[in-house]
């Protein structure tokens, strides 16, 4: 498989710049030789600039948790794609379930943020996923289709080279309840099939699609062995250098065993 596995750690609202520095000092040597996979840290905004300086000379990429859809202006408290790129970011999350459900980002807002990320030469990670009620009601395919349709509205196949999709069932985020391998594979294969219909088969075959939701060292390998899962987006377990390195090691072992 030519899709490079991506192991991303979303720290949410955790770690000061000092705590970030201590994490990187411990974590970077643990993954220094992991060339088979891509490792990505997504700390809070305040840690980005110092982390990017500390990561020089490593192969660890840096990303942000959100951005504003406009490049500049009277948007108190907001951060633009250009600012993130200037702080050394390569990736940015858009549509994380906490942004959707806590901060009210709807699909149209997510689409605008994704466009702004692309304009700012960042690689957006478009997060999508259903709630537990939606799953119980059998609406998962419909919800994912809506989030993809609006989130990628108007884009051509070429844009997909710069976009990662993350399937994160809302009921699995921060709950300790992971999707079963069957549930993860079914949803992610469905996303790939949708991409194939919306764009074309080679585009869908190249697209990286991650799983997120209570990924831990103990379940990471099983998830990354699934045929359509190209990596993981990790919240809680990415805060601990040993646990996150173990998840990266799981990704590396899966690649080595292929
Ligand atoms: C996340 O924040 O994207 C996430 C998946 O969190 P957790 O791993 O803690 O469920």
Query: How much strand content do the residues show?
Result: 5-15%
Summed up, the domain count is: 1
Ligands bound to this protein structure: phosphoenolpyruvate
CATH class: Alpha Beta
The averaged pLDDT comes out at: 97
CATH architecture: Alpha-Beta Barrel
Q: Helix and strand succession?
A: EHEHEHEHHEHHEHHEHEH
Number of helices: 11
Please specify the SSE layout and strand pairing.
Elements: E1 6-10, H1 17-30, E2 38-42, H2 45-54, E3 61-64, H3 81-86, E4 91-94, H4 97-101, H5 107-119, E5 123-128, H6 132-136, H7 140-151, E6 164-167, H8 181-198, H9 201-206, E7 208-212, H10 217-224, E8 231-234, H11 241-256
The structure holds phosphoenolpyruvate.
Describe what you observe in this structure:
The radius of gyration is 17 Å and the shape is globular. β1 (6-10), α1 and β2 form a beta-alpha-beta unit. The relative contact order is 0.15. With 258 residues, it is α/β, with parallel strands linked by helices. The protein contains eleven helices and eight strands. The N and C termini lie close together (8 Å). Helix content is 44%, strand content 14%. The chain binds phosphoenolpyruvate.
